[in-house]
Write a structure and sequence with these properties.
43% helix; D-Maltodextrin-Binding Protein, domain 2; 10-stranded mixed β-sheet; globular; 2 domains; alpha/beta; disordered N terminus; 11 helices
Length: 323
Amino acid sequence: MEVGAALALACAMLPVASAFAAGTVAFPTRPMRIIVPFAPGGPTDVAARVIGPKMSDAWGQPVVIDNRVGAGGNIGMALAAKAPPDGHTVLFTSSSVVVNQTLFSKPGYDVFKDLVAVTRANTTPNILVVHPSVPAKNLTELIALVRANPGKYSYASPGTGTTGHLSCEMLRVATKIDIQHVPFNGAAPAVTSIVGNQTPIGCLGLPPAQPQLKSGALRPIAVTSAQRWKQNPDVPTMVESGFPGFVNDLMTGVFLPAGTPAAIVNRLQAEIARIVMLPDVQDRLGPLGFEPVANTPAQFARQVREEVEMYGKVIREANIKSD
């Protein structure tokens, strides 16, 4: 290219670059797709379906929820990572995005290289629950019960590598109790199994358990949040129950493909931060056990690194394998 032509091209690109830098670039310019790498009805899908229409209302563009199920979420997450980096394909995912970096030898994406963190939209703790017939009212009693009956008790989780599964494995490793894991294909069948007393103990995210907790069909033992959860103030934390540092959650994490301009990342973060704080959104998600977070891309990226390390340690210590 001749020097004059190159200079002309560079000058032509300056307004575009300035618009991105100032955050004033036109976005979105066409329908948006939110990829949820899990089946409809789960916690991540529910949050996406509450937030998505609000984005559409504000931006005047259709927002379509695209459930891409399979491989513990890897199919949908890899698909999002390979999408054009223009902001029109958004990944709404759970903590699987950090867990799977260690759980799978080849997850199909690298959370550090192929995705850019936008925000942790919502968070909810995991919860340890039991069928009401289990003669244990707190964590101390439950550990003593399982220890006195080696090999007798099992626990349900939404699946291998879910944060519910890893929470119970953290407890198993710490206490050296003999308890068997029964993985299910999602939270709903896990809850059904616990309510039916096929698996008397369960570790899963709070939202799918909440209706059964309110009806008394499940008894809560402890939550994994740092403090007692606002919607369940009578349920003690794992920390209160004698396990310092036992804190984890189930997040709704928002990502874009790597290479997406910072102006689009920041605009999407600001819009989601606005939406999750709306009273009607909190009225819908709060009773399910969600609380808004809406942190910055930098804060969320730091959390992603910390959680890849934390869950990787659990997976290695418990020798958990998924492939």
